[in-house]
Amino acid sequence: MKKRHKSNAARLAAERDVEIYVRLEIEDQVIAEEYLLRNAIDRAINTLFGEIGSQLIHVEIVSFRYGTAMIRTKAKMLNQVRCALAFYGIHDKRECAFRIDTKTEEDNNHDNDDDDDDDEEEKSLTMPMD
């Protein structure tokens, strides 16, 4: 049987950078320190994929403002990062939840426009804190 190889376009698409917005809430409080958020992201990925598997997943905090960070990862790692953050529920013996909002091309175009449409729905993945 012949092995099917990915096309160059598919390979390039998997290697492009993707940015998402992440906020960590611990017991209904938004974490306002960048190092705590970075620690929680690392622990979430480490918990789900182990020490060796987590070394393949690179996450970079691009910006941090008011408890929300914009993180960057490769497109091929996006599902792994989202799963790790979604399944992470306890940080330092306290219940927590990551709030994840995707950054889309519309957000970039909307930043350049002078029109503000408040009726637009945001795409987001949120995990409830029970």
From TrEMBL:
Composition bias, Acidic residues: 112-122
Pfam families named among the record's database cross-references: RNase_P_Rpp14 (PF01900)
Key words of the record: tRNA processing
Stretches for region Disordered: 100-130
One of the record's GO cellular component terms: ribonuclease P complex
UniProt entry tagged with the keyword Transferase: no
Parts forming coiled coils: none
GO biological-process terms attached to the record: tRNA 5'-leader removal
Compositionally biased intervals (Basic and acidic residues): 100-111
Similarity section: Belongs to the eukaryotic/archaeal RNase P protein component 2 family.
Protein name stated in the entry: Uncharacterized protein
Organism of origin: Rotaria sordida
